[in-house]
Amino acid sequence: MRKIMVANPKGGSGKSSLAIHLASWFAQNGNPVCLGDLDRQQSSRQWLAQRPLSLRPIKPWDIDETLQEPAPAGCAIAIIDTPAGLHGKSLKRLLAEVDRVVVPVTPSRFDMLASSDFFDELAQIKAVRKERVGVAIVGMRVDLRTQASQQLLEFLQQFELPLVTCIRHAQRYVQAVESGSTLFDSNETAAQDRRQWQPLLEWLQKPCSTAQRLATPEIRRVQR
Ligand SMILES: Nc1ncnc2c1ncn2[C@@H]1O[C@H](COP(=O)(O)OP(=O)(O)O)[C@@H](O)[C@H]1O
Ligand SMILES: [Mg+2]
């Protein structure tokens, strides 16, 4: 089973939103997928409990930090949501178990400061250095017309980790989540929104080493 973890030390950076969108995208594409939630707030878990039975199924996976609990039968992919403040031994232990880490970052000074230490910590972990675990960054709630978003892009350039895409700020993200669904569960989702997710979905499906070397400049094209 492939395990994709969503992590960022800062609360409100979009971890749960990213985790549930990934889970529902895989479900929509016919992949047997489960969703584990390590955060005590259990946002993803609660979202899953509200998910209408008419939508493609996502199974809950009851986990702790060891990720050793048996996954629901037949699942090929697991998405793992994590709490704010993840670092040190807990982070290392999880990295020994997962295949990919996706890090959402918003264009906020506080988010960037918190992420900076996290990126440095990630870069020092052997599994990341050796490219056994692929790490990618996703800009969340980004509007490239704003100065804050441009500052985010500049800030991210100092790290070797690839920024694979930026997701815009839109009320529809908030509304979909309230009803146990995501943008991927709706036929009415704007093509622009689907386009913004596409590079991340492609990155997740590529072999790890090539996936790591994706370049940042693609972002500007994606946003147009
Ligand atoms: N692209 C987006 N547009 C608008 N609001 C968003 C978007 N992504 C996330 N949000 C909102 O931002 C808030 C924080 O996101 P959340 O996923 O709960 O972060 P975390 O899990 O890191 O604490 C939530 O209210 C969520 O609905
Ligand atoms: Mg959360």
Would you spell out the secondary-structure blueprint of this structure?
Elements: E1 2-6, H1 15-28, E2 33-37, H2 43-50, E3 59-61, E4 77-81, H3 88-95, E5 100-105, H4 109-124, H5 126-129, E6 134-139, H6 147-156, E7 163-166, H7 171-178, H8 191-205, H9 208-212, H10 218-223
Parallel strand pairs: 1-4, 1-5, 2-3, 2-4, 5-6, 6-7
Bound molecules: adenosine-5'-diphosphate and magnesium ion (MG).
Organism: Uliginosibacterium sediminicola
Protein name: ParA family protein
Domain CobQ/CobB/MinD/ParA nucleotide binding: 4-182
Task: Determine the CATH topology.
Answer: Rossmann fold
- Identify the quaternary structure here: single chain
Protein structure class: alpha/beta
Strand content: 15-25%
Rounded to an integer in angstroms, the radius of gyration calculated over CA atoms is: 16 Å
Task: Name the helix and strand elements from N-terminus to C-terminus, one letter apiece.
Answer: EHEHEEHEHHEHEHHHH
CATH superfamily: P-loop containing nucleotide triphosphate hydrolases
Helix content: 40-55%
- Count of DSSP E strands? 7
Major sheet, described briefly?
A: 7 strands, parallel
Number of domains as seen in the coordinates: 1
> Which CATH class applies here?
Alpha Beta
Global geometry: globular
Strand order of the largest sheet: 3-2-4-1-5-6-7
